[in-house]
Amino acid sequence: MVKSWHSKLTSSLFVLPYFICFAAFLLFPILYGVYISLHNFELLSPEHDFVGLKHYVTIFTPGTYLNSLFFNGLWNTIQFVIYSVPLLIVVGLGLAMLIQHLPGKIRGLFRTFYFLPYALSASVMSVIWLMIFDTNSGFLNSLLTKLNIPAIPWLTDQPWAWVSLITTTLWWTIGFNMIIFINALNQVPEDFYEAASLDGANAWDKFWHITLPSIKPVMLFVMITSTIASFNVFAQPFLLTRGGPGDSTKVLLINVLDQAFIRKEIGSASAMAILMALLIMIISVVQFRLTYGNKGEES
Amino acid sequence: MSLKRIKTLLLVLLASIIAVVFLLPLVWMVSTSFKNDFEALSGKMNFIPLKPTFDNYIKGFSGELMNVPILQWITNSLMVGIAGTAIVLLIASMAAFALARLKDLPLRRTLLSMFIASLMIPGVLTFLPMYMEFNALGLINTYAALILPYTAGAFGVFLLYQFFISFPKDIEEAARIDGANKWKLYTHIMLPSSISIMVTLLIFTFMGIYNDFVWPLYATTSPEMRTITAGIAMMAQGSYTQSYGKLMAMTAAAAIPVVIIFILGQRSFVKAITQSAIK
């Protein structure tokens, strides 16, 4: 008995260091966040009154400041998701298919070219594009001037601000989806295509009836990860458009952090953060269920 | 020329045009970093600077450039990245080893599902309370605040667990018969055999910490504590935006370490992405 007690203890000791970090920097913050959201928690004031669900109720009360902050941010985030996710999937798949059809020797090279921006941090990426989108001296407008096209206010006017944000997002992150699609395409059995060729199928038939059904689970994975990533969008509008023009690209995460760090209202900011996190988790659970459901149908 | 050859040539041409679009912003950054401010803001589209100058780099690294301690920022980023990665590799591999191989671990299944479930938790949920936690402990603007939050991530545990669970049992049993205890098993059998997956995790983790910018932006308050990504983000919002030559030199300096690691470790990085996709 003593030996087994001892053995269990040594086994536990292996998990303990990670568990302490997990508890201190994940479990505790989650619970503490709920606690904060139920209080009037201001960064500079030492007193934190319990206010119950007040912040949550205010967020859902039309006409209040918190209500417009949350729902305007949410609407801008949803717009970003709607614009970016289809492109992140289609362009990612397109690049993967292009690479598949290149001669073997240069495949790796082009994969690296398209994947390289993914290595950059958000701030490096933004600073490069700030210079390219600059209205007066930027690369893009200089190019347009040469072609006798008037300069475009890339970051300060709609719809150009969205166009710019989506362009940088694609440039920066598409490599991730491309890699996943390349792997998926590599796993489609070659005989499927050969058999289809014998039946006289053209390229489009093969894509539609063989490629797409074979990579369907991967497609859903990419859809889920891209949707979640787009819902968390922050760096591009924060650094490139500063939420403008007007408030049109102030996404939810910008509003949450502004409420916390500019207006120092940590309590209501936490309530907004919790609602945002819940929304993201609901979306991913729904999409996971769809994936699971589809797998069930096939088998 | 056969039809197939023409088709291949057209595809290579298309791929090359797309490659130019992908690489052009990076080439422009490097090119601009060697231009003086006047030329950088002139709106000329010259890729080769008319009067190439190292001034932006020299002034940047010597700290002469508007009092920006760029070397300090890069040192901070490297230190935080290395320390954070070392801790993650150690504690994640120990936990994954126990979860996968030590069947008498109490609450083994509960812990495992808790760690894996935590992968679904969005960062926004913990960001503010974690800030308040570090603030209450007086640790904002310290290396502890820049390193510790990354140690809670479960990706490493998940990745290594998958590796250890499929590790052949007989090697382990042979070692046990030879009298090896759990610690020996971990250090002498499991760690040496997992070097390749550990390198994968190392590159993935280091790049994640080095490139993170939202947390270090808020968790640091003084210029000398900033990481290079947070520092560049601050510069992009200040008066430096009107000095593209200098800004691009700093940006290139920030990007070079991580781009080198990325290119060298690309294979491992791709492996990590693939393994996270196949759940």
TrEMBL record, chain A:
GO biological process, one term: transmembrane transport
Span of domain ABC transmembrane type-1: 74-287
Presence of keyword Transmembrane: yes
Topology in the lipid bilayer: Multi-pass membrane protein
Signal peptide range: none
Pfam families, per the entry: BPD_transp_1 (PF00528)
This protein's GO CC annotations: plasma membrane
Keywords linked to the UniProt accession: Cell membrane, Membrane, Transmembrane, Transmembrane helix, Transport
Domain of life: Bacteria
Membrane-spanning ranges: 12-35, 80-100, 112-132, 160-182, 218-239, 266-286
InterPro entries: ABC_transporter_permease (IPR051393), MetI-like (IPR000515), MetI-like_sf (IPR035906)
Subcellular location: Cell membrane
PROSITE patterns found in the cross-reference section: ABC_TM1
Similarity remark: Belongs to the binding-protein-dependent transport system permease family.
Record-given protein name: Sugar ABC transporter permease
Lineage: Bacteria, Bacillati, Bacillota, Bacilli, Bacillales
From TrEMBL, chain B:
Bilayer topology annotation: Multi-pass membrane protein
Keyword field: Cell membrane, Membrane, Transmembrane, Transmembrane helix, Transport
Domain of life: Bacteria
Sequence ranges assigned to domain ABC transmembrane type-1 in this UniProt record: 74-265
Transmembrane feature ranges: 73-99, 111-131, 143-164, 185-210, 244-265
Matches recorded under InterPro entries: MetI-like, MetI-like_sf
A GO biological-process term: transmembrane transport
GO cellular component: plasma membrane
CDD domains: TM_PBP2
Record's keyword annotation contains Translocase: no
Location in the cell: Cell membrane
Family: Belongs to the binding-protein-dependent transport system permease family.
Protein name per Swiss-Prot or TrEMBL: Carbohydrate ABC transporter permease
Source species of the chain: Paenibacillus lentus
Species lineage: Bacteria, Bacillati, Bacillota, Bacilli, Bacillales
